[in-house]
Specification:
The chain has 8 helices and 7 strands. The protein has 242 residues and is an alpha/beta fold. It has a domain of 124 residues: P-loop containing nucleotide triphosphate hydrolases (Rossmann fold, 3-Layer(aba) Sandwich). Bound molecules: BIS(adenosine)-5'-pentaphosphate.
Amino acid sequence: MANETAQKIGPVILLGPPGAGKGTQSKRIAIHYGIPQISTGDLLREHVARGTELGRKAKDIMDRGELVPDDLMYGMVADRLKHVDCSKGFILDGFPRTAGQAGWLDAFLEREFFENSKRCSPVVIRMDVDYTQLLLRLTGRRCCPTCGRIYNLHFQPPRVDEICDLAHGSKLVQRNDDRDEVIRPRLTAYEVQTKPVADYYQAKGRLIPLNADRPMDEVTADLLALIDRCGAPAASGMTKSE
Ligand code: AP5
């Protein structure tokens, strides 16, 4: 969808464990509303690929399946959210991931975006998926290094084995942290450090749980309906970046 037809929907936050489908669904939501998907995992992987100072600090931590310290995340996220393309709304995929990050985000949104932060609270949706299904999704995931499309060898294989359907001839790759020995620490980090984020939003009456253990199209339809219902009224308060 072109920018001029982008709708204002306010921020959307997708929470959920590794493999819940946050990236898959964020991309669909982004296209539907014409707003950017902001994946902190993708941003960090770009820093690693470019060999920036942040990337050098983050690489080993990510390879171990642990969370990058909060203070390293804030500058990167703030820079990205200040881009003009975020003024009509954005989808956060992978952030916030600790209670500290959630508090920081609320303060940042109030300072940078909203005149009336209560009216413009983000839509926070937690995507719930069974543990065994998560393991299948993570071990089967393959990504196109050219166009970023996500596949799954079990549930959504490419037409030609290991080759992207869209980017001609690109061979699909497995993410470094989708190796067996890294998956479990990632799931543990979610249980210990990211579940409190859901508690944070629950306490503020903002958490919407969604059963994401269903076919992708069904999950997409429910997400769009939730965002249409909960996101639209927030838009008029997004002012400073417009
Ligand atoms: P990040 O890149 O954010 O990874 P993650 O949260 O572990 O999530 P994933 O990308 O693994 O899963 P997803 O929910 O996006 O699932 P996807 O749609 O791909 O983070 C990586 C690392 O960066 C972290 O470990 C940490 O070190 C660091 N980091 C990032 N953010 C941070 C932060 N805020 N603070 C600190 N550190 C941070 O789907 C998975 C698979 O399932 C795919 O193959 C897909 O095709 C398939 N699938 C999706 N939906 C369905 C469905 N409905 N049915 C069947 N298959 C499905």
